[in-house]
Write a structure and sequence with these properties.
β2 (16-20), α1 (28-43) and β3 form a beta-alpha-beta unit. The chain is elongated, with a radius of gyration of 23 Å. α4 (103-114) packs across α5 (136-146). The protein is α/β, with parallel strands linked by helices and 312 residues long. The protein folds into two domains: 2-170, Rossmann fold; 187-308, Riboflavin kinase-like (Elongation Factor Tu (Ef-tu), domain 3, Beta Barrel), CATH 2.40.30.30. The strands form two sheets. The chain has a six-stranded parallel beta sheet with strand order 1-4-3-2-5-6, sandwiched between helices. A six-stranded antiparallel beta sheet has the order 7-12-9-10-11-8. It has helices spanning 28-43, 74-84, 96-99, 103-114, 136-146, 155-173, 177-184, 200-203, 290-308, and strands at residues 2-5, 16-20, 47-53, 88-92, 117-123, 149-153, 189-193, 209-212, 224-232, 235-244, 256-261, 272-282. It contains nine helices and twelve strands.
Length: 312
């Protein structure tokens, strides 16, 4: 797979079969459609080209809709797309200039001149260009003159994708990370640089590797304790993670992401860590003191070890 950052200097594509979208989460619905794109490219001895945006358009265009809670970063999208067999990914820097491109210019200058589109996969309700004024009717009317074929994704297929995206967010916000896994086809994850905390956990036998919620650009699952796995320096370790505002210690409404890596002892401050969420263990609890917290963490650790199959 070849990744192109920007669209000003794209190489020449062979019989490009193109789709354009945010593809946030790249859940199983997205993956099914991408499979169709790849198959179509193979049928015409062409190349599959997926166009996505960074940042997400809803992070740029002001609207009355609430801010989007992202399910994937650009780097995570690229990892999944590599596995799905896409030939080219074009990452468009979404900005006001791109948003204000007229629908006709979007088709002629972007799709035809830059992407050299031969087959275009779009949803039946696809909108594009300034104020989203471009639609399927315009794409169909210009297809003959501009030399591309239109493949229209059915309403049912699109509805399935929209439902899946909404469902993933709902499951994560309720702590149902296993349900999210079944929709994504993989464990939901968060990544960041390990920060030095105030080390309360160390005093009760549970030193933690901490991620700052401020550095997380994705949706953070519901507060509570989770059985997780950790990727550190290309190795995977079983772990127990907590998301919450630590009501036992300070309860200052600051969300913290703290991870106790099982049977592990090393200085990893400043390292990049990825958390993979396997199962929700319990919600947050307002315990009386640190000793009560220690006893509860012992019970949590036992539950996590059973889930992950890690004997003590």
């Amino acid at each position: 797979m070849i990744c192109h950052h920007g669209w000003d200097r794209l190489s020449s594509f062979r019989n490009a079969v193109v789709t354009v979208g945010s593809f946030d989460g790249l859940h199983l619905g997205h993956q099914k459609l991408i499979g169709q794109l790849v198959s179509r490219a193979e049928e015409i001895s062409g190349e599959s080209v997926l166009v996505t945006f960074d940042p997400h358009p809803r992070q740029v265009i002001v609207s009355d809709r609430p801010p989007i809670q992202l399910l994937s970063t650009t780097s995570e999208k690229l990892e999944v797309l590599e596995q799905l067999g896409i030939d080219h990914v074009v990452i468009v820097p979404f900005n006001q200039a791109f948003a204000q491109m007229s629908p006709e210019a979007y088709i002629k200058e972007f799709l035809v001149e830059k992407l050299q589109v031969k087959v275009l996969f779009v949803g039946f309700d696809h909108k594009f260009g300034h104020r989203r004024a471009g639609d399927l009717e315009l794409l169909e009317s210009m297809a003959g003159d501009q030399g591309y074929e239109l493949e229209i994704i059915s309403k049912k297929a699109l509805d399935d994708i929209k439902v899946s995206s909404t469902a993933v967010r709902k499951k994560l916000l309720s702590g149902d990370v296993q349900g999210a896994l079944h929709l994504l086809g993989r464990a939901y994850s968060l990544s960041g640089i390990i920060q030095k905390g105030d080390q309360y956990g160390r005093t009760i036998g549970y030193p933690t590797a901490n991620l700052s919620a401020d550095q997380i650009t994705k949706l953070i699952p519901a507060h509570g304790v989770y059985a997780t796995r950790v990727r550190l320096d290309r190795e995977i370790y079983p772990a127990m993670s907590y998301i919450g505002d630590r009501p036992v210690i300070d309860g200052d409404d600051t969300t913290r992401i703290e991870t106790y890596i099982l049977d592990f002892d090393a200085d990893i401050y400043g390292h990049e860590m990825t958390l993979y969420f396997d199962q929700h263990v319990r919600g947050d609890m307002n315990l009386s003191d640190l000793e009560a917290l220690r006893l509860q963490l012992e019970r949590d650790e036992e539950a996590v070890r059973k889930i992950l199959g890690t004997a003590q």
